Amino acid sequence: MAVLFTIPGEPGAKGRPRFTRYGHAYTDKKTVEFENLVRVAFTQHVPGHQPYEGPCRVHIDAYFSIPKSASKKRKKLMIDKQVRPTKKPDCDNIEKAILDALNHIAYDDDKQIVETSVCKYYSDVPRTIVMIEEV
């Protein structure tokens, strides 16, 4: 059975670990907030979900806001998915933030993920759509 849910707002990404002056590593606030948003969105869309135990496939569609500076012609191309975002965050960092956030919630561990795909698009409504299914 596939699970499909939406994370509202601009797509987030896994930030690089930060270090204190004493060498202690920590996750930056922006990453922690996005991962919490992912967990909340998942539990609201799929209440009572038991974590998958077998191999899983994940597909992520990240929809970014259309820049205000875009012309009408360019906006139409963006909405029609003919112009795609090549800006940050990178696909792999979007994927990593979502997969890490869903550990022990959607699946036991992200090592179970055997297949992934991430697509970036523009939209009037920024959001991230995630589909998870057992293989």
Automatic annotation (TrEMBL):
<protein>
    <submittedName>
        <fullName>RusA family crossover junction endodeoxyribonuclease</fullName>
    </submittedName>
</protein>
<dbReference type="GO" id="GO:0006310">
    <property type="term" value="P:DNA recombination"/>
</dbReference>
<dbReference type="InterPro" id="IPR008822">
    <property type="entry name" value="Endonuclease_RusA-like"/>
</dbReference>
<dbReference type="GO" id="GO:0000287">
    <property type="term" value="F:magnesium ion binding"/>
</dbReference>
<dbReference type="InterPro" id="IPR036614">
    <property type="entry name" value="RusA-like_sf"/>
</dbReference>
<dbReference type="Pfam" id="PF05866">
    <property type="entry name" value="RusA"/>
</dbReference>
<dbReference type="GO" id="GO:0006281">
    <property type="term" value="P:DNA repair"/>
</dbReference>
